[in-house]
Write a structure and sequence with these properties.
Blueprint (H helix, E strand, L loop, with lengths): L1 H12 L6 E2 L2 E8 L11 E2 L4 E9 L14 E11 L4 E9 L7 E10 L8 E2 L5 E7 L14 E5 L9 E11 L16 E11 L1
Antiparallel strand pairs: 1-12, 2-4, 2-12, 3-5, 4-5, 5-6, 6-7, 7-9, 7-10, 8-9, 9-11, 10-11, 11-12
């Protein structure tokens, strides 16, 4: 009986704490994976896309001038998209530079124009958009509608670093105004904005 009580006490000491808001926007740069189309079908399985980003205040609008290669990583490991509807699914890993456990993310692609002959839109911020996913939407970029985008760290509750919530991504290019050329239109570099709306406990 005493052993059980001791065990319970130890467990209670490592239980998750009260959730606190941890919403943040990632602005960064990286590369989009090559398109891998399935024969003559409309199914595309793009190769992995990888971005390095900085954490900014939630709601920050990323552009070519404030998006640089930071210390957090956002990697779309696996995705599948129908080129006719421009909709599909994505799965990947988010790693913060603060030592927190990695987070897995899963969501819907709602606008995809990276393939040859794609028709990227120009959003309300003047960015040439090739990819929208998760909860991100833009009225200038149909068919984006933001239905599904969830992320969750792989553990972390025992150390108060369990980060979970919803996300949305925009992968874009935009000619810089200050000469940085981080992700100019037509280059091989892309900028990304990831809006994370979540809690840590």
């Amino acid at each position: 009986m005493l052993a059980a009580a001791s065990g319970y006490g130890a467990y209670a000491g490592t239980a998750a704490g009260r959730p606190i808001d941890s919403s943040v926007t990632l602005c960064g740069t990286g590369s989009m994976g090559q398109d891998i189309q399935e024969g003559a079908s409309s199914q595309d399985h793009p190769a992995s896309s990888s971005f390095m980003a900085n954490e900014e205040t939630a709601g920050t609008q990323c552009n070519s001038d404030n998006s640089t290669a930071g210390t957090d990583s956002w990697t779309i490991d696996h995705s599948n998209v129908n080129l006719d509807t421009e909709r599909g699914t994505e799965h990947g890993i988010f790693q913060r530079s603060n030592g927190a456990p990695p987070a897995g993310f899963n969501g819907h692609i709602t606008d995809y124009d990276h393939q040859a002959g794609g028709d990227p839109c120009v959003d309300a911020a003047g960015r040439t958009v090739y990819y929208l996913s998760g909860k991100e939407t833009d009225s200038n970029c149909p068919p984006s509608f933001g239905p599904v985008g969830n992320f969750n760290t792989h553990g972390g509750a025992a150390t108060g670093t369990h980060f979970r919530g919803n996300y949305g991504t925009i992968i874009f290019q935009q000619n810089s105004s200050n000469g940085n050329h981080n992700c100019d239109v037509g280059s091989q570099m892309y900028c990304i904005q990831v809006d994370l709306v979540g809690q840590t406990n």
